[in-house]
Amino acid sequence: MASPVPVKEKKLMDVKLGELPGWILMQDFTPRGIAGAFQRGYYPYYNKYVNVKKGNVAGISMVLAAYVLFNYCRCYKELKHERLRKYH
């Protein structure tokens, strides 16, 4: 049975595995499209974890963990080389 919602308008979690390549090709990869995707993801994250009445460090710590993981992946080649170097 075909879905009544067009593939382009579906969210990633609603896309079937067979529809995934077509869904990816239909996305907007221009700078404006990428900025819009970040903006659509930022506001729900901000309202759920940062802008709350009884806040805690969960929202900020997730951003910090993502930053640390990103920098570790970016510098992995240098860190691997440093680990294998012998100190005399």
UniProtKB/TrEMBL annotation:
Pfam families (alphabetical): WRW (PF10206)
InterPro entries reported for this sequence: F1F0-ATPsyn_F_prd
Record membrane topology: Single-pass membrane protein
Organism domain of life: Eukaryota
Primary location class: mitochondrion
Transmembrane segments: 57-76
Family per similarity comment: Belongs to the ATPase F chain family.
Record protein name field: ATP synthase F(0) complex subunit f, mitochondrial
Gene that this polypeptide is encoded by: LOC123385043
